[in-house]
Design goal:
- Helix content is 38%, strand content 29%.
- With 336 residues, it is α+β, with helices and mostly antiparallel strands.
- Helix 2 runs antiparallel to helix 9.
Length: 336
């Protein structure tokens, strides 16, 4: 297996990257070529100012076997190898490699990194690995073999709702009190005589739709603080990239002719991934967040989506809608 450093994303064919991703141990929107490239261009909304790209591919008889999208940065007092997308705005990260090639790709990758970047890093610190990823066992095995220190911990919960039937079948699985509350809020909104309706944006005017979404998102004080200018630029780039590549699913709720809630989702691999949302605080009497989410879940059932993934975060409302926890992990290996 031949490993190669790449100085820029342009050195890798985007279609070849995404084709490998389809068969990879983890196939998520955050690992697609276009997302990874945009993230690196903006350094995660300015999260990493001084970082060095370590983009590695492995081939065997000219066939692409694996991709390690990495960078080196000082982190927690050590020069560390991190996954491109770390840490705050990419909910799921991993290596890009088929399961059958996984163990030997990682073993060869660490040999390659240790021999070619010997003095540049002392730790591997990978966040947002799905708890189902075979990368977790592979890293544990590599640490044991090499005598490196190994730390594995739960980083964040990623609540999800399994959807495998009708909307009524989904509601029947929700706790009775919460099911009643969902129906009550929907009925109140629909009977309010305020023209409550929801729609999926056609993104005919991309800039204005992004503006509308961000203006609702930043009504939350915490999100407003998060949306500093570099992060806002990154967010716009991510939305545009998702739209251009066919996996953006942006929806709004209206009342009194005004947009009062929005949800930015990714429609990918026959499931909906809930990336972010916002509501107009002046319309809380209509429970806009709950109402829009209910419409979204109903749409998912009607369109045979297998799951709604809330992604990272343990906000209470997610569990009221019947979400069940999975997790993303952090693994840190330290060379001794």
């Amino acid at each position: 297996m031949k490993y190669t450093f790449h100085k820029d994303f342009s050195e890798i064919n985007s279609q070849e990257w995404n084709d490998l991703l389809k068969d990879s141990v983890s196939d998520t929107p955050f690992l697609r070529y276009e997302y990874q490239r945009i993230w690196w261009e903006h350094r995660g909304g300015g999260e990493w100012q001084n970082a060095e790209l370590v983009l590695v591919t492995a081939r065997e008889d000219e066939k692409l076997i694996g991709i390690a999208p990495l960078f080196i940065a000082d982190y927690e007092g050590q020069p560390s190898l991190l996954l491109i997308g770390s840490i705050e705005i990419s909910d799921y990260l991993d290596l890009i490699v088929r399961k059958d090639d996984h163990a030997r790709f990682i073993s060869g990758l660490f040999d390659f990194l240790a021999s070619t970047l010997t003095d540049k890093w002392t730790a591997v610190d990978w966040y947002n690995l799905p708890d189902s990823s075979t990368t977790l066992n592979a890293l544990r095995d590599e640490a044991s073999t090499r005598g490196w220190t190994h730390l594995e911990e739960i980083y964040r919960p990623t609540p999800r709702i399994a959807l495998n039937g009708s909307f009524e079948e989904y509601l029947a699985r929700v706790e009775k009190k919460q099911r009643h509350e969902i129906r009550r809020k929907m009925r109140r909104a629909q009977e309010s005589d305020r023209g409550v309706r929801w729609f999926i944006s056609d993104m005919a005017n991309v800039d204005s739709e992004i503006d509308a979404f961000i203006s609702l998102m930043e009504q939350d004080q915490g999100k407003a603080g998060f949306l500093h200018e570099p992060m806002r630029t990154q967010m716009r780039a991510v939305i545009r990239t998702a739209q251009e590549n066919g996996w953006l699913w942006l929806t709004f709720l209206e009342a009194d002719g005004q947009r009062i809630a929005a949800a930015l989702n990714f429609d990918y691999n026959n499931k909906l991934w809930g990336y972010n949302a916002g509501v107009d605080r002046a319309y809380m009497d209509l429970s806009p967040g709950w109402v829009l989410l209910t419409y979204i879940l109903e749409w998912c059932c009607e369109n045979k989506k297998t799951e709604f993934d809330f992604m990272r975060g343990d906000e209470e409302y997610k569990y009221r809608f019947g979400a069940v926890n999975q997790h993303v992990m952090r693994v840190r290996l330290t060379r001794n």
